[in-house]
From TrEMBL:
Lineage: Bacteria, Pseudomonadati, Pseudomonadota, Alphaproteobacteria, Hyphomicrobiales
InterPro entries: CdaR-like_regulators, GAF, GAF-like_dom_sf, PucR_C-HTH_dom, PucR_C-HTH_sf
Top-level taxon of the source organism: Bacteria
Family annotation (Pfam families): GAF_3, HTH_30
Segments forming domain GAF: 2-47
Protein known as: GAF domain-containing protein
Species name: Tardiphaga robiniae
PucR C-terminal helix-turn-helix domain segment(s): 395-451
C-alpha cells in the first residue's frame, strides 16, 4: 500500500492511497505518479469547494435581491397609495395584508391612531394602554428611537410584536406596532420599517393640516371674543367650509380639558365624529366646539366616550343655548365658562350638562371652591341630608320635587308616586327639621341648596 497527502498551499485536504493484493515495493516512478495525481485531486477538491461557495453565495444574493426588490415594490405601492389620497387607515390595512399581521399606528402621544387588523381578536388597542404593557411600549420605542430601527417587544396578552418609533427631523410623529405568532423575516422587518416611513409621511401631513385648522379656529374665536369686524368674514368662510349655514344659530360645546393638550383632545374628538360638522379650537385653556344644534348632543356624547377610551379620563362638557356666533359669541362664551366652572365644583369628572340648567347658580357659585359649596349645602339643608342618611326617609327628593312643582302637592305626589297625605307628612317632617323655610329669603336659600345638591348627584352619576 502507498499513500500521499492531498496538499494545497500547505494545507492537507485529504489522503490518496493505492493498494495491491500482494505485498510489494512501489517503484519511484509509481510514487511520483501518485504524488502528481494527489496534487490534481487536491486542486479538484478545492475547485469543487469554491464552486459550491460561489453557488451558495449566488443563491443568497438572488434571494437578497428578490427580497430587496419586493421591499422596494411594497414601498412604491405604499407611496402610490398615499399619492392617490390614501390615509393612515389605508396604509395600515395594506401593511397588515402584506405582512399577514396585526398593525396598529400610534399618534405622537403613543395613543391609538388606527388599528388595521386584529387577526386573533386580541383587542390590542386597549391592551397597549394597560400599565405594564404601556411601560414595555415606552421602553421599546425609546430604544427604537435611539438606534433608528425597529425592535422586538413582549406584551402581556399580545402575540410577539415589533415596534418602531416614527420620527421626523424635529419631532416624534408616532409609532408603528406589528404583531403575529410567526416571527417576521429580515425582509418583512425591512417592509415594516419602510411602512413606518410612509406612515410618518401621512402623520406629518395630518399634523400640519390639523395644526393649520386649529390655528385658524383659535384666531377666529379670539376675533369673535374681541368683536373684531373681520372675524365675521372668517366665521362665514369657516362655517361654509365645514358645511354649516352661517345664517343659522349654533351651539357651543365647551370642553374642560384640565391639564390635557387641547390639540390632542380635539383630534380624538374629530376621529370619533368624522361625519359631524363643527369648528374646533382652543380659547383660554378650554377646548371650544361650534356645532349645528342637531349635531351638538351627538358630538358631546361621542367626544366624551372617545376621550375616555383613549385617555382613561372622563371630561366635563358644557352645552350652551342656541346663539348667533357673529354677534353673541362673547357673552355666550363667558356664561358657558362660568357654568363649566360650576360643573367642576359640583362634579369631579364626566358631566355633560346644559347652560340653561346652570346659569342662575353659576352666577352665584362658579368662583366658589368645592368646600365652600359643600358648606353652603350643609348649612342650609344639612338636617334633611342627615335624616335621609340615617333613616332612609327621602325627604330631600320630596322637598326638591315639591318646590319644582310650584308648591303643588297633587302634582308633586303624582311625580313621586305617593299619596298626597304621605307628601304632607313628609313636608311636616321637613318643617320640623328646617324650621320655617317658607319665608321669601329662606325659601330661596333652601331651593338653591336643594338644586345644587340634586345637580351634584345627577352630574356625578352621568
Amino acid at each position: 500500500m502507498a499513500a500521499v497527502p492531498l496538499l494545497l498551499d500547505g494545507q492537507v485536504l485529504g489522503i490518496l492511497y493505492i493498494a495491491d493484493r500482494h505485498a510489494r515495493a512501489f517503484a519511484p516512478e509509481e510514487v511520483a505518479l501518485l504524488v502528481s495525481l494527489g496534487t490534481h485531486a487536491a486542486l479538484a477538491l478545492e475547485n469543487a469547494r469554491l464552486f459550491e461557495e460561489t453557488r451558495t453565495a449566488l443563491e443568497a444574493l438572488e434571494i437578497k435581491t428578490a427580497e430587496t426588490q419586493e421591499a422596494i415594490a411594497v414601498h412604491e405601492q405604499l407611496i402610490a397609495l398615499v399619492a392617490r389620497g390614501g390615509g393612515l387607515d389605508d396604509v395600515a390595512q395594506m401593511l397588515a395584508a402584506i405582512l399577514h399581521a396585526g398593525v396598529v399606528v400610534l399618534d405622537h402621544q403613543y395613543e391609538t391612531a388606527c388599528l388595521a387588523v386584529d387577526p386573533a381578536g386580541n383587542n390590542v388597542g386597549a391592551k397597549l394602554g394597560q400599565a405594564r404593557n404601556r411601560s414595555q411600549l415606552l421602553r421599546a420605542l425609546g430604544e427604537s428611537q435611539s438606534i433608528g430601527r425597529s425592535v422586538s417587544v413582549t406584551f402581556q396578552g399580545i402575540p410577539p410584536s415589533i415596534a418602531m418609533t416614527i420620527i421626523s427631523a424635529t419631532q416624534i410623529l408616532g409609532a408603528l406596532v406589528v404583531w403575529r405568532q410567526a416571527p417576521l423575516s429580515d425582509h418583512e422587518i425591512r417592509t415594516l420599517e419602510r411602512g413606518a416611513i410612509v406612515c410618518g409621511i401621512v402623520l406629518l401631513s395630518l399634523d400640519r393640516a390639523a395644526k393649520g385648522l386649529e390655528q385658524d379656529a383659535a384666531e377666529l374665536f379670539i376675533g369673535l371674543r374681541n368683536r373684531n369686524p373681520e372675524a365675521s368674514v372668517a366665521l362665514t368662510r369657516q362655517m361654509e367650509q365645514w358645511g354649516m349655514d352661517p345664517r343659522q344659530p349654533v351651539i357651543m360645546l365647551l370642553v374642560d380639558i384640565a391639564d390635557r393638550m387641547a390639540s390632542h383632545v380635539l383630534r380624538v374628538i374629530k376621529g370619533a365624529c368624522p361625519t359631524r360638522r363643527f369648528i374646533g379650537g382652543e380659547l383660554e385653556a378650554r377646548l371650544l366646539l361650534l356645532c349645528p344644534p342637531a349635531d351638538a348632543p351627538l358630538v358631546a356624547t361621542a367626544a366624551q366616550k372617545a376621550v375616555e377610551q383613549r385617555t382613561g379620563s372622563r371630561i366635563n362638557i358644557l352645552q350652551s343655548a342656541e346663539f348667533m356666533p357673529s354677534t353673541e359669541f362673547r357673552d355666550t362664551f363667558a356664561k358657558a365658562g362660568r357654568c363649566l366652572d360650576l360643573v367642576r365644583v359640583l362634579a369631579r369628572q364626566g358631566a355633560i350638562c346644559t347652560q340653561d340648567e346652570l346659569t342662575v347658580y353659576a352666577v352665584m357659585f362658579a368662583e366658589r371652591s368645592r368646600e365652600e359649596l359643600d358648606a353652603y349645602i350643609r348649612h342650609t339643608i344639612g338636617a334633611l341630608l342627615e335624616q335621609d342618611r340615617k333613616r332612609n326617609t327621602n325627604l330631600t327628593e320630596t322637598m326638591s320635587c315639591y318646590l319644582d312643582s310650584g308648591y303643588n302637592t297633587g302634582m308633586a305626589a303624582r311625580t313621586l308616586g305617593i299619596h298626597e297625605n304621605t307628601l304632607r307628612q313628609r313636608l311636616d317632617s321637613v318643617e320640623r327639621l328646617l324650621g320655617n323655610w317658607r319665608t321669601a329669603g329662606r325659601s330661596f336659600e333652601v331651593q338653591t341648596a336643594l338644586k345644587l345638591h340634586m345637580l351634584r348627584l345627577g352630574l356625578a352619576t352621568k
